[in-house]
């Protein structure tokens, strides 16, 4: 199968349309995406699986105190793991450039990709808003920041995300064959122009607005207002209650991961949509957009590996739990050593007493 004839990506958005009519005009060599995808996704699978399994173990087994922040984090872990479990199928497809697993698994894979992408964005936004309420409005937000309300928000996020990702995956013909001469079956690519013209242009507007632009603005605005609050004299006077250095580090890590993972892909996606609708014309523009797309996608998928970093820096509860485990392990080693020394000492005293008793008995009998 020649890669020079493929203009769509392995993860080409469902609104990309059938591009066969453009092959003679803007022929592109995009073969680099397959080894890139297979390598990056293999790494993401291993690292993402290990870090998220450790995270879910800490959340379910180690944390004694659970609050609304950990509720958002647990849902984010679930979103990441659902996507990570589908990565071996994708890696197989990228290596062989053919999808042998059937249409249903392809649809599930497509749906879980968008579920993870925009679920992660929305859950990270929930964490940012929760931090904003806790620091900027600590007293007025007491009735809002409860585990019950956090569960309601998480349920709403799942409904919103699934209502967008499931139709994208299951209502579209996600598998197709290049031509009658090959047995290669595509997944995620070569969507028909009819699908694009009917409703997919509306999908990109919806997910970019609800799933990216609004959450981005919320994250930036909440972070700015938290920083402004930390600079106020009454906040400075609280001293020990608020560790400004920790909060500042938390905000920087959160914003960096959010912007690094999601801005390149979603910005490129807007230009990609403009190219597919012929709003932007020209082979050079199309070439740039299609070259950036696989790289931006790999960066976006890496959020599965970066989310556990957010868990650690955002949740002081997790940090304390890890410290308690570490201190508990050291304390156990110290107690075991002391007990061992005590037992050895007592055995030595016991042996000395027996020796003295025997010597005294022998002297008495002489």
TrEMBL record:
Domain (G-protein coupled receptors family 1 profile): residue spans on this chain: 51-311
Membrane topology of the entry: Multi-pass membrane protein
Subcellular location: Membrane
MF terms (GO), sorted A to Z: lysophosphatidic acid receptor activity
A GO BP entry: adaptive immune response
Recorded GO CC terms: plasma membrane
Keyword Transmembrane in annotation: yes
Signal peptide: none
UniProtKB keywords: Adaptive immunity, Disulfide bond, G-protein coupled receptor, Glycoprotein, Immunity, Membrane, Receptor, Transducer, Transmembrane, Transmembrane helix
Transmembrane regions listed in the UniProt entry: 36-60, 72-93, 113-133, 153-172, 203-227, 247-272, 292-314
The protein's name: Lysophosphatidic acid receptor 6-like
